[in-house]
Design a protein that fits this description.
single chain, 80% helix, mainly alpha
C-alpha cells in the first residue's frame, strides 16, 4: 500500500533523473573540496614539520644523523 503511494508520488515528480544528476554533482564538488582541503592541510603540516626539524625527523627523512636545512 505504501509502496503504491510512493510510486504515485514518483510519477508526479517527473524530474527524478535531473534530481539524481544534481545530487551527483553536489557530492562530486563536495569530494573535490574535501580532497583539496586535505592536500592543503597536509602541505601546511609538512611545512611546519620541516621548519622545526628535530634530528629524529632528519634521520627518518634523509637517513643521516645531522638535521639538514
Amino acid at each position: 500500500m505504501k509502496i503504491h503511494k510512493l510510486a504515485k508520488k514518483g510519477r508526479q515528480f517527473t524530474r527524478v533523473k535531473d534530481f539524481h544528476r544534481i545530487v551527483d554533482s553536489v557530492s562530486r564538488t563536495a569530494m573535490t573540496i574535501k580532497s583539496s582541503l586535505n592536500q592543503r592541510s597536509h602541505y601546511y603540516s609538512s611545512q611546519r614539520r620541516n621548519s622545526k626539524q628535530s634530528p629524529e625527523i632528519a634521520t627518518h627523512q634523509f637517513g643521516s644523523t645531522t638535521p639538514e636545512r
